[in-house]
Design goal:
Low-confidence stretches: none
Strand order of the largest sheet: 14-13-12-15-16
Distance between the termini: 69 Å
Largest sheet: 5 strands, parallel
Number of domains: 3
Radius of gyration: 21 Å
Number of helices: 14
Mean pLDDT: 95
Helix content: 40-55%
CATH topology of the largest domain: Aconitase, domain 3
Length: 399
């Protein structure tokens, strides 16, 4: 792999031990994937910051980098932590867990990260330029950045995104190469996709059927908006290693690719495929909690939830997960008060997947995303039922 003189000096430790360690990790990954050189990135999104996910070993790794005076050289945002950083006591997070989680955040902030704690940085002001090179970890954010913005990032792991934040570099392979962004499959969707859950399940089915590659999805019946695109991408990324999709007439690269789709494998997805995926992921019908926000809820989704449950007194525990920036806007709009008045909670900084829900008594949950269903079942052993957002309108008031 070619390294510039500055990169060689960085690798040799002339810019500090932390940068040398970080660049060594990036170079090693690049060599594995046969990258010819390194490239500069514009920003980084670091995943793997929840204490539930990384434990004591991860905490010590981050602490060690901080002790080596590691500093982020590009704008850097953070994925969800393992708890609401301020209201953790209210949802029963153990004090020892909270102490270690706050340490992790403190070290990352000390290195220069913005305390965003969100899996949807694009909802809180981080909107990458077309063709911008990034180093993002968090599969649902990666596929959104690549597909909707036309930016370029691989599905980084937590450590590699952290290393890129320190060095400002990543290896040039995969989604950074124009040749790797060409469609490999054509997807035709039959019937209408009617809500965010069906968009999520459609994505899950696409990922299952293709696994690896780049789908070009033909125009289909359904409301194409930011929230539904978020659900579609997250679903694809959940069931596969896919980091990019093209959607006819919608995504920025689709227009130039439309006339170059000859000889590609064609996949047809019917309503029965979506229903089959729902049945596969849904295994509970008596949930005690409604968990929404995987990926994090947008301001528009919180507005919908607030309108659905206005003047109701919920029979189930409703927990809504979002970022602190969206939370602050929702407070000003009055959405948080309406949800709380009905007995619900709006929780920031964390998400249902990386918080220790099973340890605080959440064992059965209703969710509206395939990503939530898949990871709650596989990582936390929580039984889930899948229902769209609008189902909460049907919840009866307490007697």
């Amino acid at each position: 792999m070619y390294l510039s003189k500055i990169e060689e000096k960085m690798l040799d430790g002339e810019y500090g031990e932390a940068k040398a360690l970080a660049l060594k990790l990036i170079v090693t990954l690049g060599e594995v994937f046969k990258a010819k050189k390194l490239i500069s990135i514009e920003n980084a999104q670091i995943a793997g910051i929840s204490y539930k996910t990384i434990g004591d070993s991860g905490l010590e790794f981050i602490k060690d980098l901080y002790a080596k005076n590691a500093k982020f050289t590009v704008p850097t945002t953070l994925n969800p932590a393992g708890m609401d950083l301020e209201k953790w006591k209210e949802i029963g997070i153990p004090e020892d867990f909270a102490k270690k989680q706050l340490e992790i955040i403190s070290f990352l902030e000390g290195m220069g990260a913005e305390k965003t704690c969100s899996c949807t940085p694009y909802l809180i002001g981080v909107k990458p330029r077309f063709n911008a090179h990034l180093a993002w970890a968090e599969s649902s954010a990666v596929i959104f950045a690549n597909s909707i913005f036309g930016a370029k990032t691989n599905r980084e792991g937590g450590p590699s995104a952290l290393a890129s934040a320190i060095t400002g570099k990543t290896a040039m392979y995969g989604m950074h190469l124009k040749s790797e962004r060409k469609p490999t499959h054509i997807v035709k969707v039959e019937g209408s996709i009617i809500n965010e859950l069906e968009f999520s399940l459609l994505g899950y089915v696409i990922g299952e059927k293709i696994s690896k590659g780049v789908p070009f999805i033909n125009k289909f019946k359904g409301k194409i908006n930011l929230d539904n695109l978020k659900a579609l991408g997250a679903g694809i990324a959940t069931s596969s290693g896919i980091a990019l999709f093209h959607l006819e007439n919608i995504t920025p690269e689709a227009k130039t690719l439309k006339n170059n789709l000859k000889n590609l494998e064609k996949i047809v997805i019917e309503k029965k495929d979506i229903e089959k995926a729902r049945e596969k992921l849904s295994n509970e019908e008596s949930s005690t909690h409604i968990l929404l926000g995987c990926p994090h809820l947008s301001l528009n989704e919180l507005k919908k939830i607030a309108s659905f449950i206005k003047e109701k007194s919920l029979t189930k525990n409703l927990w809504c997960f979002t970022s602190r920036k969206i939370y602050e806007k929702a407070v000003k709009k009055g959405f948080v008060k309406k949800i709380e008045d009905a007995g619900g909670k709006v929780i920031k900084d964390t998400c249902m997947v990386v918080s220790p829900l099973e340890a605080i008594g959440v064992l059965k949950a209703q969710v509206n995303s395939s990503k939530a269903a898949y990871y709650l079942s596989s990582l936390s052993n929580i039984k889930v039922e899948l229902k769209p957002l609008e189902e909460i309108k049907k919840i009866e008031n307490k007697a």
